[in-house]
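Thread: Recombinase, structure

OP (GT): Posting the sequence first so everyone is looking at the same thing. Length is 286 residues per the record. Can we get the structure tokens written out before standup tomorrow? I want them in the notebook alongside the other entries.
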Amino acid sequence: MLIEYIHQFIKKYLPMLNRSQETIKGYRVDLCSFNDWIADNYNCIPKLEMIDYKMIEEYLYYLKTKRNYADASRKRNLHSISSFMKYLKRDGLVTENPAEKVAPFKVVKKVRQPLSESEVNELFRNASGLTRMLITMLYYSGARISAACNLKMDDIDFEEKTVHLFGKGQKHRTVPLHPNLEKELNHYLNNTRIDTNSDYLLATKKTGRLSPPYARKLISDLRKKLGWQKNITCHTFRHSFGTNLLKKDVNLYTIQKLLGHNSLRTTEVYLHMRGEELGKEVNKLR
């Protein structure tokens, strides 16, 4: 049965590659959803030999038309299926990867709108407790939400003025402890952090640690409290960290290192903001 191979891929192969729990969870959701769709659509127990590129294309079309998945989400599902099929091909369970024959489709990247410094300050003024500590950490360290939620108390070095982040792809990086972040940390640790034995910095009573979904809810609740229409996510703070550094004339290479990007090309996305600003300046000519 197909589901048995999926379980082997999820429980043995991905952990062997040191994939993060968040990454493994993503693969599990995508592949189990594909398995369930085959069962429902074909009214059968899904089997490996049933899968061909036409079935995968049919599934991707279903995600678009029936589930209203964005192109980026469909692309992620295709990647999950393709990685699974590569694993099966490597073990000699299939002779080819049918996902490689799927007709390519373009993904239009949304331009993220960063927060201005005044917007960041307004968020700080209206946040308190765990929410305030969360957004302060995200903005002044440039951390991804997974790294922020994984932060432990001893990852903050007040003597060396550094924050040790465990990020995407099991990679570690150390970023400077900004004075504003240090001030907020001291207030949080001495006044507002819940009384718990948890080693995690962003702790909750129920589980001992803040989860990414709950973090997203805290930020969503803060946005609603302010009555803002602007879409703000956990990643908005990381993006704003990079964009506002660029506005301060920090060079792109330094921003790359602070954000932990492998490639400078990834960091170059922040240049679009500078281009927009230059356009506005030129338009001032009369």
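GT: Both are above now. Quick notes for whoever picks this up: The mean pLDDT is 88. The two ends are 71 Å apart (CA to CA).
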